[in-house]
Design brief:
The complex is a heterotetramer of chains A (533), B (368), C (325) and D (307). With 533 residues, chain A is α/β, with parallel strands linked by helices. Helices cover 32% and strands 25% of the residues of chain A. In chain A, helix 14 (421-433) packs parallel to helix 15 (451-466). The longest helix of chain A is centred in the first third of the chain and has 19 residues, at 123-141. Chain A is globular, with a radius of gyration of 25 Å. Chain B is built from 16 helices and no strands. Classes of the chains: A alpha/beta (533), B mainly alpha (368), C mainly alpha (325), D alpha/beta (307). The complex binds adenosine-5'-triphosphate (ATP) (2 copies) and magnesium ion (MG) (2 copies).
């Protein structure tokens, strides 16, 4: 990718394209932004990095008029403005590509692009203009999409292009992209950066949000770092390094190696042969994956989010069905498309599962902690008295585990919703580890969790391993994978593209593997949808 | 139905519902005022009509019985995140089940032997009438609100067909079945009291009231104290978590709806076996719809539902009294009040939350 | 042969009359649901409008005043629905049920209190009603074979609201697919956040859609009491709102298919009325209840995905929440 | 204190219930005795309303309409010391007087008039709920029409098979229109409130209509050919009056042409539409029925109609 950064940061007269002063914003008890200040110079690509939950999206949503700041000031081209709504932001020439796309799947690309800038009460004229404009943008920036395709039929990369087109067609001069590469294949990401370069050439100011340092270093002119709702540093990209940014992001030296003894590898617990998983849209998400996990070892799966790790984990847990291949547990139970199992049976075989998304899967946030404590174990004898549930047993168990895992506050009657993210994660861990599983499936164990809790969780996982459990760990945090795993598998586009012992692993090599070349830039046909009758 | 503002529990289950009902009653009072009558007087008449004499109490509790069953039916479905608007049709078809059992066996068996069979009939018929929409929701993704509405109409057409063409007592004009043998009637309250030497006036109140109370207790235990209730609540709150926990949401939806329909079908025990003693048209008289209001008001908890049913029993029976006593007010005023209760306790349930939160904030500034 | 043709035409003629309120209400539902607001309350709005229109026409002697009042009352209820489920994010289904129940009760209570006729309003004179108009040359055209009778019997001779209903369908199509408002409407029912980030008010759009729905329901109700008949009677809608809802689903939330669903349901209804108690050759007395239940059965079958798939606008039923405060 | 329980449709239905109301009012005016009343608005209310009247000590209690038969029967047994009367139904309980009318005879007469008034030779009949009672109206009507003119054809429709059929003017109007479209030019509505829609449709279409139960001629002067009178007003009046005198007899009280219980209405609203020829014909039929010369078939005797 191009990296000829012309230092266009004008020194004297030119005011910043965007200046934010003292922005604060709370959501109820959560302070998402605290006294944030930011200056973005015109015609540059400005990166913002920060961990999950640092407040990046919130800040940009305020700039875009989607949320309203509790305090602070916004200046565009040096003039103070109030951005009361997205409309106001659009009128000021600000465009945004949201982390979660804001597209209407059932409408055509053209309709989506026109939404909000229809050019009159009737569509005919606007449609013609928009078509012409799309053709022009496609020529100028290589942003090609079929205007008549249904958005729902497009690949993610193409959908993102539609989002960019939406912003451009509204004449934006300042383009905000919120984690644009999280869902992209490496090729798609490279294409994106080419497009951003082209935009910058034509004077568009770009704010690029990400937590991937590689992208920041490769694509931006300057960078700001957020942590826990605050802006902690501003750097010119050439003057900083990945190490410095990483430290600023997390507020400590990264890559803390977990102290762990040599693994005592036992027998094979999980043996996967050509496991294939197909989603509801008939797309293969996991493609003929084979590997083993033994007792007493932690096997980490590294990869960019969306490359099939989640589906693999869910298939192993019995939540998704296989469409091909098989895996066997303990060498006794073989699971395949013909002989499926469900989470209930999986638990019976000694499998525990810490799901990636605790809010949507691991917890029923409206239930009190003790009811969450029996989630998945609701049929167990120890929690049932004949026909009735034994509530007292559940409460006592839950209270004891809360003590052990240092869940705060240690009150089994509080609804799960009122615990903080880290404590919620501990509730899930406590429940799953308490069963002393033979095989532990763990997804994103420390997502959104504070540092104290991270260390605790890491140590707990290692302790499980040392007690002889087989642990399969999925995480998008490379550091986490590297510090915890005994053996590392790298997944890309649904396949395992590399395997190595942790001792032999270095981040560069894994990074390359994660960005593994895969054939296509997904040029999916756009089947003629039955549009407006 | 997310709850936007967090309030202390006593406010949430005590103050807010009370405010909602007060608002509904206040608006109803305005309507009565607009009709040129005195709402206070109307309330007085209504209370007298509902509780002033023993027959009135009997009627009030008789209505209450129906509402408990339909309210429980709606609530059980709510716990699984399902909105069952079909209580009316399920009660109707449940009554058909009761009627068929008794018409087949009434000369042969006494009521106490018939009762369990009639309950099975009610549960089977009502249950199936709800389970089909449940199945369609679970396995075919058909919106349960729409399908249950459709099933109400289908039930109504079916019952008309059966009563007019098949079950009508020959030589009779009203589309009604023959009357059941007296030995098949559920004991009436006044008969039961007479046995223990207490003389009360005749009213439609019968043994089913006791059954309704038992059903409330059983539902409470089932929902909060059994693994199946746990499964239902998990599916209702978070279907993904249910799958994760090894609970099959589809099966759960199917069986929850079946259970919901069974409860609604029990209206047939009260109405057909207890009161009408024959099958007739429209004996459900809107009880199924009222069940929605009852469940909303009772916050889907059996205790709340029994209380809300009592309130609606009072409204229904007291409403009849209104009709007798006032020139301008008819019984349909009860429907109006019911509508306002659904509006304020259901659709506008959280309208007062910000207000109350602010008030509490002012009164107890120390709150975290 | 000619007789049979005439009989078919006459049934079609009746179909049109019976289907008119269905068409109007179904288009109302279409606007509402396309904006992401489920509208169980079609029935209640229509009923209230029917009462308001008949009462007003009876008092003022003007059909147009009745129409105005019918529409106003219906819009009022639509705004109440909006207040509950847009402004206060209440449950849309519950709000709709509440509106139906309130309308069912209030029309009777007020009707009895004001007119003392058991909930009926006074019979309207011809001048206070929408009466039927023969289109030009209707009689002359009758002699032309085939299309002549079609024109004279089916097309000509309806009141203005029937023609209005027929005009509403292409108008709806045009608004939904060819105007800016329609584009936004379709978008807000699928993904309100997309509309919001495009700088358009979700609340404003949804309220507008509800007002349109209210207007159409108002016309539908007015038609029932001041055009199709000459007075309001209790529970006059008798489930037509729900049937319109079914027709809209049957038409997959699209104007033209919905029109045909309304005509089909209207036709079944017209047939059921005519067959009631009539002895037919071979079959004997036809079970008209089957015809009456058929629209609902067909809708269920459709919803079950056995004949095509009915997919509702994705955002319908869920209030739009921006901040998780 | 006498009491009356009106049925669905209400006391101002301009027809059946309103007739009873008029009779009761006449009694109240003449005797100065106020009476209790209740209008049933749903099927389950009948029993409660009647029982409530009985409990309040009302005597006699008059139930209006066949649908109240079962309820009257039940409560009459519960209150054996109270006198009851029921119109249009036979209840075999010692303290109940059952009042039934020979509707077929009255219908025969209006059938004669209709046949004479028709220019197309086609008549219409719109019934309410499809029950033998209404079929009896229809059968008598057809009999009269064919007596007057052999070639006359009668189109018949019923509105529905449930009590809702009494209260659906829109459907009534639709049915009348379909009959007009098929060539009928006189329609007889025996359908409670539903009939109001039939009469309205006749006016809208410029055809002729025949009302039922009460004298409905005034509703649409110029359209209303006549009304088939069923003197429920007299029946109600008599029930109250004889009860006051303590001579309300149980058993079946049949009111036919001979007892002036049924008839046809002639007043200032329709006198211009009734020609002398029509008058003569109907007078002849009336005499024939009274003398037994003309046997009007009663549908309810064997549930068939021979015409
Ligand atoms: N709409 C909202 N309501 C309540 N809390 C919110 C909302 N949006 C964000 N938050 C909270 O604000 C904090 C900052 O969130 P934000 O989305 O800005 O983080 P981020 O830096 O974009 O993280 P990520 O990298 O995961 O996207 C988090 O604690 C989050 O839970
Ligand atoms: N829905 C809620 N209702 C009540 N309190 C809440 C809710 N969500 C969060 N809180 C409270 O707000 C505080 C902050 O929550 P949040 O999830 O942002 O914590 P956090 O800073 O991310 O902590 P952690 O690092 O453990 O994830 C916690 O103390 C929690 O108890
Ligand atoms: Mg973000
Ligand atoms: Mg957190």
């Amino acid at each position: 990718m191009t990296s000829d950064h012309q230092q266009s940061m004008a020194g004297g007269g030119e005011p910043p394209a965007i200046e934010l002063k003292g922005i604060s914003k709370s959501f109820g008890p959560v302070q998402a932004n605290r006294n944030v200040t930011l200056r973005v110079m015109p015609g540059t690509i400005h990166g913002i990095v920060g961990e999950n939950g640092a407040g990046k999206s919130t800040l940009m949503s305020i700039l875009y008029g989607f949320y309203h700041a509790d305090a602070g000031e916004i200046l565009v081209d040096g003039t103070p403005v109030t951005i009361a709504s997205s409309r106001a932001a659009i009128d000021l020439g600000i465009g945004m590509v949201h982390q979660h796309f804001m597209l209407v799947d059932t409408m055509s690309v053209l309709d989506n692009v026109m939404l909000g800038s229809e050019g009159g009460a009737l569509l005919d004229k606007g449609e013609r203009a928009a078509r012409a404009e799309l053709a022009r943008l496609s020529r100028d920036y290589g942003l090609t999409v079929d205007p008549d395709a249904l958005v729902g039929d497009l690949s993610v990369g193409q959908q993102q292009r539609v989002e960019i087109l939406k912003a451009l067609i509204r004449g934006c001069r300042i383009l905000v992209l919120d984690e644009p590469t999280g869902v992209l294949t490496p090729q798609e990401a490279d294409r994106l950066f080419e497009i951003l370069d082209a935009l910058r050439e034509r004077g568009v100011t770009i704010i690029l949000i990400t937590h991937k340092l590689r992208e920041i270093l490769a694509a931006t002119d300057s960078v700001s770092v957020m942590r826990l709702g605050e802006m902690v540093a501003h750097r010119k990209t050439p003057e900083t390094s990945a190490e410095e940014l990483a430290e600023l992001m997390v507020g400590r030296k990264v890559l803390l190696r977990v102290d762990k003894p040599e693994p005592k590898i036992g027998e094979t617990i999980l043996q996967a042969d050509n496991v294939t998983v197909t989603d509801a849209q008939d797309v293969d998400r996991v493609k003929a994956v084979s590997f083993t996990v033994h007792a007493g070892e932690i096997v980490g799966i590294a990869g960019v989010a969306g490359n099939g790790q989640s589906e693999l984990l869910q298939a192993l847990a019995g939540i998704q069905r296989l469409s091909g291949g098989s895996f066997s547990i303990n060498g006794t139970r073989t699971v395949s498309a013909a002989t499926p199992y469900n989470p209930h049976e999986a638990r019976g075989l000694g499998i525990a599962h810490v799901p990636e998304d605790r809010h949507h899967m691991g917890l029923v946030t409206a239930f009190p902690a003790h009811e969450n404590h029996i989630l998945g174990h609701q049929d167990w004898d120890q929690y049932n008295n004949g026909l009735l549930l034994d509530r007292e047993a559940a409460i006592a168990d839950c209270a004891a585990e809360m003590e052990r895992y240092d869940v705060r506050p240690p009150n089994p009657h509080l609804p799960a919703a009122s615990f903080s993210g880290g404590n919620q994660q501990k509730l899930v861990l406590a429940r799953e580890l308490e069963t002393e599983p033979k095989l532990l499936l763990v997804g994103q164990p420390t997502r959104g969790v504070d540092i104290g809790a991270i260390e605790f969780i890491h140590n707990t996982l290692v302790a499980m391993r040392d007690q002889g459990a087989a642990v399969l760990l999925v995480s998008v945090e490379l550091e986490e994978i590297m510090s915890l795993s005994d053996r590392i598998l790298v997944m890309s586009d649904g396949r395992i593209v590399g395997e190595m012992m942790a001792a032999d692993a270095d981040p560069q090599r894994i990074g390359l593997m994660m960005a593994n070349i895969s054939e296509d830039d997904a040029p999916q046909g756009s089947p003629e949808g039955d549009k407006a009758a | 139905m997310s709850q936007p503002i967090k309030l202390p529990k006593w406010v949430d289950v005590g103050v807010i519902p009370a405010l909602n009902i007060l608002a509904a009653l206040a608006v109803s009072a305005l309507v009565i005022l607009a009709l040129g009558e005195n709402p206070i007087e109307a309330l007085d008449v209504m209370l007298y009509g509902a509780f002033g004499y023993d027959e009135a109490i009997g009627y009030t509790l008789y209505y209450t019985t129906n509402f408990i069953f339909t309210g429980l039916a709606v609530a059980v479905a709510f716990h699984a995140g399902l909105f069952n608007i079909g209580g009316e049709g399920q009660a109707y078809i449940g009554g058909l089940g009761v009627g068929l059992v008794i018409l087949a066996l009434d000369g042969l068996l006494p009521w106490y032997a018939l009762l369990p069979l009639a309950m099975i009939g009610a549960a089977l018929f009502g249950g199936i009438w709800a389970a089909v929409p449940g199945w369609l929701q679970a396995y075919r993704g058909s919106h349960i609100v729409i399908t249950t509405i459709m099933f109400n109409f289908i039930a109504s057409a079916l019952m008309v067909y059966l009563l007019v063409n098949v079950m009508i007592k020959p030589g009779q004009m009203s589309p009604e079945s023959r009357e059941f043998a007296e030995s098949a009637w559920l004991p009436m309250a006044h008969q039961m009291f007479a046995v223990i030497g207490i003389d009360v006036s005749r009213s439609p109140l019968n043994l089913s009231f006791v059954l309704a109370l038992i059903a409330s207790v059983l539902v409470a235990i089932f929902i909060w104290r059994t693994r199946w209730g746990y499964a239902i609540r998990t599916v209702g709150r978070n279907e993904t978590a249910a799958i994760y926990a090894g609970i099959d949401p589809k099966k759960t939806i199917f069986w929850t709806m079946a259970l919901s329909g069974m409860l609604a079908g029990m209206v047939g025990i009260n109405e057909i076996m207890g009161v009408q003693h024959k099958l007739l048209l429209n004996f459900t008289a809107g009880y199924g719809f009222t069940g929605i209001a009852v469940a909303l008001m009772g916050r889907n908890h059996p205790i709340g539902i029994v209380l809300a049913s009592l309130l609606f029993g009072t409204l229904y029976q007291g409403g009849a009294e209104l009709d007798f006593e006032f020139e301008q007010i008819t019984r349909d005023m009860v429907i109006v009040i019911q509508g306002f209760i659904i509006l304020f306790s259901g659709a506008l349930a959280y309208m007062f939350n910000p207000l109350v939160a602010r008030l509490i904030g002012r009164l107890m500034p120390a709150r975290g | 042969m000619a007789d049979t043709y005439l009989l078919i035409l006459l049934t079609l003629d009746a179909t049109l009359r019976v289907a008119t309120p269905l068409i109007l209400a179904a288009m109302a539902g279409l606007f509402s649901e396309r904006s992401g607001v489920i509208d169980i309350g079609l029935e209640g709005k229509m009923l209230a409008a029917a009462f308001a229109a008949a009462a007003t026409a009876a008092v003022t002697g003007s059909a147009w005043a009745g129409l105005g009042m019918g529409i106003s009352v219906s819009i009022g209820l639509a705004l109440l629905h909006g207040f509950a489920c847009i402004t206060h994010r209440g449950d849309q289904v519950i709000s709709g049920v509440a509106i139906n129940v309130v309308a069912a009760g209030l029309t009777i209570v007020l009707g009895i209190a004001w007119f003392h006729q058991g909930g009926r309003t006074p019979t309207l004179d011809a001048s206070a009603r929408f009466t039927e108009h023969a289109l030009p040359f209707a009689d002359a055209a009758r002699s032309i074979p085939v299309i002549g009778p079609l024109y004279a019997e089916v097309i000509s001779g309806h009141n203005i609201l029937v023609y209005l209903a027929l005009a509403v369908v292409p108008l709806t199509w045009w608004v939904v697919y060819r105007t800016r408002f329609g584009l936004r409407l379709r978008a807000v029912g699928e993904n309100p956040a997309a509309v919001d980030t495009a700088g358009i008010s979700v609340t404003g759009l949804r309220y507008s859609a509800l007002v349109i729905a209210g207007t159409l329901c108002g016309i539908a109700g007015t038609y029932l009491s001041t055009a199709h008949s000459a007075a309001f009677v209790r529970d006059m809608t008798a489930g037509k709102g729900y049937m319109a809802l079914a027709a809209m689903i049957f038409g997959k939330w699209k104007p033209v298919p919905t029109l045909f669903a309304c005509l089909l349901f209207g036709f079944l209804d017209a047939m059921a009325v005519r067959l009631q108690g009539v002895e037919l050759p071979v079959i004997g007395i036809f079970p008209v209840q089957l015809l009456q239940a058929l629209p609902y059965i067909l809708t269920v079958v459709l919803l079950a995905g056995f004949i095509g798939k009915a997919i509702a606008p994705k955002a319908s039923g869920t209030p739009y929440v921006k901040e998780r405060t | 204190k006498p009491a009356v329980v009106f049925d669905m449709g209400g006391k101002f239905d301009k027809s059946f219930n309103e007739g009873v109301y008029e009779g009761a009012e006449r009694f109240a005016k003449e005797s100065g005795i106020k009476y209790l009343e209740f209008e049933v608005t749903n099927e389950t209310q009948r029993e409660q309303a009647i029982r409530r009247m009985a409990r309040k000590g009302a005597n006699p209690i008059l139930g209006v309409g066949f649908a109240q038969g079962p309820a009257i029967e039940k409560i009459a047994k519960e209150y054996p010391d109270t006198s009851f009367a029921i119109i249009d139904s036979v209840v075999d309980v010692p303290n109940v007087q059952s009042i039934v009318f020979n509707e077929h005879e009255g219908s025969f007469l209006v059938g004669v008039l209709a046949a004479k008034a028709s220019e197309t030779g086609k008549l219409g009949f719109v019934g309410g709920m499809d029950i033998p009672l209404i079929r009896r109206f229809a059968c008598g009507y057809v009999g009269g029409a064919q007596w007057a003119n052999k070639d006359v054809e009668v189109l018949q429709n019923m509105t529905g098979s449930t009590p809702a059929a009494w209260n659906d003017p829109t459907k009534g109007a639709e049915l009348a229109r379909s009959q007009f479209d098929r060539g009928a030019d006189v329609v007889f509505a025996a359908a409670g409130s539903t009939g109001l829609g039939v009469l309205q449709a006749a006016e809208d279409a410029g055809k002729k209509a025949i009302g039922v139960d009460s004298n409905q001629n005034y509703l649409h002067p110029g359209t209303m050919l006549t009304s088939m009178l069923k003197r429920v007003d007299i029946a109600a009046y008599n029930v109250f009056k004889s009860a006051k005198a303590g001579e309300l007899k149980p058993g079946i009280n049949v009111l036919g042409l001979g007892e002036n219980g049924v008839g046809w209405a002639l007043d200032e609203h329709n006198k211009d539409m009734i020609t002398d020829e029509m008058k003569a014909a109907v007078a002849k039929a009336e005499a024939g029925i009274k003398s037994g010369e003309i046997k009007v078939h009663d549908y309810m005797a064997d549930n068939t109609c021979p015409y």
